[in-house]
Amino acid sequence: MRIAALVLSLCLLAPGGTARAADPTAALAPFLGAPYRDDGVDDPAGRHTLFADQAASFPTAGYNCSGFVTTASRRLLGRPLPLDAARHDRKGDSGPGSPRGQDWDFGYDLLLNITDGLPRRVLPPNAPTSDPAALDASRFRGFPLHDKASFDAALNALRPGEMAVIAFSKERKGRLYYYHVGLIVSDGQGRRFLYHATPGHGVHRLEISSPTGMAAFGREFAEKRFGDKRVLLVAVPLPR
Length: 240
Fold this sequence. Notes:
alpha+beta, 7-stranded antiparallel sheet, 7 helices, globular, disordered N terminus
């Protein structure tokens, strides 16, 4: 684990902290095995810190789901992605005292902030043609999490040279939460991988274009007592 964290730190010290690779799986490889850290993220300089306390500093890497997506997207897209910009509450509707709950749409805001200014599109099925920023996050949430046919349609629509940000939402006690995010990229063989960070596994990947990988995905996101779970995938082009 220490070796993986050291390699990751060295990789992120590349000029501008935005080194990229032609194969996105190669660019993401140094992140694999990084431990889960609640609120953990890297700033644009590659310093290991926290979203909520950017004065904090850690000697080794550690990420929660949004911290990993922000840090990895910075590397894949070659964008600085300052932390305050990445977590910006776009509609001002999820701060303290919000009737829907604080940070209820954090994952959706993060998805939009990371892809802001890029040509982006919602992946099918039933994908609207409008910019994702124009959607009502409480009404359009993508497709059911465990709908394999819809997942296959979305993955098949991901073009070579694109990545997708995936936002997971669920209803809990009558409230809606965008509670998890991840990245989907393809390798040179056309296989699709979900990269994400979870408390039980840290940063890891699942080959969701294979039956084995989708079975593992189903186990990680097993249906429990919560209400309707959905996923929204937004694709953007990778730099050439």
